[in-house]
Amino acid sequence: MRILLTNDDGIYAPGLRALRKELQKIGTVSVVAPASEQSATGHSVTLNNPIVVQEINDDNMNRIGWAVEGRPADCVKLAVRELLGFQPDIIVSGLNAGSNAGINVIYSGTVAAAVEGAFFGITSIACSLEYTKARPLDFNMGAELARKVVEQILDKKPAPGSLYNVNIPSLENGPVLGVKVAPQNVSTYEERFDKRIDPRGRTYFWIGADFTCPEPTPETDTAILKERYITITPLQYNLTEHTRLEEMYSWNWKI
Fold this sequence. Notes:
Stationary-phase Survival Protein Sure Homolog, Chain: A, alpha/beta, 27% helix, 9-stranded mixed beta sheet, single chain, 11 strands, 7 helices
């Protein structure tokens, strides 16, 4: 099996390194990932600047893959169209430092890379590890759990272009209790901004690092993640609201 591994934390991120090691147990892994962190860049792509690509080797001078001076979606585009020379059987994005549940799916570069893979008709899986404390994360355990979920998804022989979002609960809060399929939570997250004044008297803001969802809808990914279950959510990128579409066909449009 030929696996494309990418992320939004950057090619040197420990989560990617740990997941690469685990995925090598089930296939040949090629890495095409951003040269620097691209968290919360969503599905943006690079249009007005050249995209510099550099091959990256490990300490033994074995090629890991390519570092891309661009966004996660850029990485998948270049991997499939230019760099690999073949279409991968599966694309895995992660292992992200921090969950990508609920409405964070919209902002996530990790999920965007998986969505881009689905555009190409390739089964794509975004994998993220929640954290609740400012401490080193157990990426090795998180990557092992992610690999086990990936294997089970592949065992079901998903249709080409299938898209999944996997979130692993914080490992600091106790053992993982199991795996549950869950819909995406759409409840509002709390966000805080730190207002400051620069030396020239101008106002600026730092967005806080704490994104919490105080009242997640029960039985959704955000709620179940808090119960220490791995969540799997099948996603789609067709944003058409079909119920409203049918209604709007009957409107008497004029010009």
